[in-house]
Amino acid sequence: MELSDLGYGRWFQEKREQLQRPDCSVARITRVDRERYLVRNELTEVQAEVTGRMLFGAASSQDLPCVGDWVLVQYVNDGALAVIHELVPRRTFLRRKAAGKDIDFQMIASNVDHGLIVHSCSDQLNLRSIERYLVLANEGGVEPIILLSKSDIARAEDLQKRLAEIGQVHGSARVIPCSSVTPGGLAVLEESLEKGKTYCLLGPSGAGKTTILNRLLGGEVFETNPVREKDGRGRHTTARRQLTVLEHGALLIDTPGLRELGMMAVDEGIEESFSEIHRLAESCRFNDCTHTAEDGCAILLAVENGEVSPQRYQSYIKLKKESDFHQLSYVQRRRKDRQFGRMIKGVKKQMRKK
């Protein structure tokens, strides 16, 4: 195996050279389970840990490795353990607001080429949820693909209706129906996966992500739980983020189901995911239009004329407000952290003088 088989290319090589660490080797993070890491190079996959300098110098969790990252390492204990010294800059990323009340980013994966957004046909079609995943992918420069899993349980006419509804609001994203139980149910997906490209499975618990991964691997490699009788949904199984190399050479990251998908600092992702609304905004009378009550708002006029559905408009406004609110809170918190840090340094300086 070559590093290129793991997704390494000229872009990462240039970034690695800029770090000026000839004493280190390059490897890719293939698994993250809390603060434990696995790294893989051309020859082997071993446990890894970050240096104390890297751990305590991290301003936030974004500065620590996540699955998919390329890192510079030194091997110790006869190659049985790797010590992570540097993080190679990320080309793309998937991140969300941390769950709960914590105002911070949580990294999901990095250096991903395609995000596979899994939505189960056992659930009602939730366009608003799909929109959030599209914003998440577009913000990080990841090309989204929507997978309608468990398509075997949907009638042909219902499946076509779902495809049409998704196409009306997300026409730019590719949609692939797939099934893990019917013969050839994953054929279209398998044909779409390219050698050396990295794909990340995204979606809520029970959508069938790990089952899809197992079928692509040709066996029950990762644990899954049976579906619940009351709603036909699988129970949450995956508790770690892990990158796997498929037989034909594509790289696939499985992630835990996301119960919350908070938005923070995703302006570009919203513009890309709601491109038709963003284009309308350029025709608004006022440059600082909030698109909520102003006269001359092109978006409100489009909603009134039926060019934009009220549901999609409301989703757009909600995501923008949510993103802006959390981003403001994040900036304020970081400012307080810096002020506290300066105060501590000042106190230490005074103590040294005494």
Count of alpha/pi helices: 10
Helix content: 25-40%
Order of helices and strands: HEEEHEEEEEHEHEHEHEEHHHH
What is the CATH architecture term of the largest domain? 3-Layer(aba) Sandwich
Strand adjacency order, main sheet: 1-2-3-5-4
Round the mean pLDDT to the nearest integer and report it: 85
> What would the CATH topology of the largest domain be?
Rossmann fold
Low-confidence sequence ranges? 228-236
How many DSSP-defined strands? 13
Class from helix and strand fractions:
alpha/beta
Largest sheet: 5 strands, mixed, barrel
Strand share of the residues? 15-25%
| CATH-defined superfamily of the largest domain | P-loop containing nucleotide triphosphate hydrolases
Briefly say what this structure is.
With about 350 residues, the protein is α/β, with parallel strands linked by helices. It is built from ten helices and 13 strands.
What is the fold's blueprint, element by element?
Blueprint: H1 10-18, E1 25-33, E2 36-40, E3 45-50, H2 52-57, E4 70-76, E5 81-87, E6 93-97, E7 105-110, E8 114-120, H3 127-139, E9 143-149, H4 156-169, E10 174-177, H5 187-192, E11 198-202, H6 209-217, E12 241-245, E13 251-254, H7 267-273, H8 275-281, H9 298-304, H10 310-353
Parallel strand pairs: 3-5, 8-9, 8-11, 9-10, 11-13
Antiparallel strand pairs: 1-2, 1-4, 1-12, 2-3, 4-5, 6-7, 12-13
Helix pairs in contact: 3-7
Description of the molecule:
This protein is an alpha/beta fold and 354 residues long. The chain has three domains: 3-87, OB fold (Dihydrolipoamide Acetyltransferase, E2P) (Beta Barrel); 93-254, P-loop containing nucleotide triphosphate hydrolases (Rossmann fold, 3-Layer(aba) Sandwich); 267-341, Probable gtpase engc, domain 3 (Ribonucleotide Reductase Protein R1, domain 1), CATH 1.10.40.50. Helices cover 34% and strands 22% of the residues. It has ten helices and 13 strands. The protein has helices spanning 10-18, 52-57, 127-139, 156-169, 187-192, 209-217, 267-273, 275-281, 298-304, 310-353, and strands at residues 25-33, 36-40, 45-50, 70-76, 81-87, 93-97, 105-110, 114-120, 143-149, 174-177, 198-202, 241-245, 251-254. The strands form two sheets. A five-stranded mixed barrel has the order 1-2-3-5-4. Helix 3 crosses helix 7 (267-273). Residues 228-236 have low confidence and may be disordered.
